[in-house]
C-alpha cells in the first residue's frame, strides 16, 4: 500500500470541521477517485495529504497519514514532495508572471538535472501543445493549458503519488479526454494518481477505485465498476 489514511479529521482555527472521518488507501500505479459535492471536504483532504493545511491555520486533530510505510502526518509540503507526493491545487495552479519554462526549471530541485529533463519530456509527450508555449507567461495561457502546465510541473519532482484537486473545475468538457488519458499514462508509468473532483462522470469511469465524501466523511467506497449506473453520486450519466 503506497498511501493510507486512518480516520483523518481536520479542524480550522474558527473551530469549523474540515473533515471528520476520512480513511483511504492508494496502491502504486492505481488511479483513485475522491468525489463529492461542493463543501464535502475534498480540498481539505487534498491539503491534509500534501501538507498545505498550515497555510490556513488548519491542523490534523485525529488520525494519521502513512506514505510508503512512514508516518508523514503534518509534514511540510517540501518534505512531502521529497518523499514522493506532489499535488496540483484546485486554484492558483500557476505563477502568472513566470514563463512555462521557468515553471519547470523551478520544480524538483531535489532531483538531478537529467531526471528533471526526462520528466519534462514525458510531460510534453502527454501534452504536446505545451511545447510551443515554453516562452509564454503562464498567465496568458488558457485554463486547460494552465492545468497541463501544473501537471507537468508536478511530474518534474518524479512523484510516486500525484494528487490533482478538481481536475475539470472551470474547464471545457472537451478537455476531459486529453487530461484523463494523460492520467492513465502516468499511472501506467508507475505513479499512483488521486483525482479529486465534484463532477464524477469521467473521474469514476477512469479510476479503478472510488471514494465518496459527504459532510467530511467517507460514506461509500469500492471498485469503479460498483459505482457505474448507480445514483450514489446524485447524477444519472455516470456510465457515459
UniProtKB/TrEMBL annotation:
SMART domains: AAA (SM00382)
Keywords recorded for this protein, A-Z: Amino-acid transport, ATP-binding, Nucleotide-binding, Transport
Statement: the UniProt record of this protein carries the keyword ATP-binding: yes
Matching InterPro entries: AAA+_ATPase (IPR003593), ABC_transporter-like_ATP-bd (IPR003439), ABC_transporter-like_CS (IPR017871), BCAA_Transport_ATP-bd_LivF (IPR052156), P-loop_NTPase (IPR027417)
The keyword Nucleotide-binding appears for this protein: yes
Residue span(s) of domain ABC transporter: 3-240
Annotated GO MF terms: ATP binding
Superkingdom to which the source organism belongs: Bacteria
The family this protein is said to belong to: Belongs to the ABC transporter superfamily.
PANTHER family named in the record: HIGH-AFFINITY BRANCHED-CHAIN AMINO ACID TRANSPORT ATP-BINDING PROTEIN LIVF
Protein name: ABC transporter ATP-binding protein
Lineage, broadest ranks: Bacteria, Bacillati, Actinomycetota, Actinomycetes, Mycobacteriales
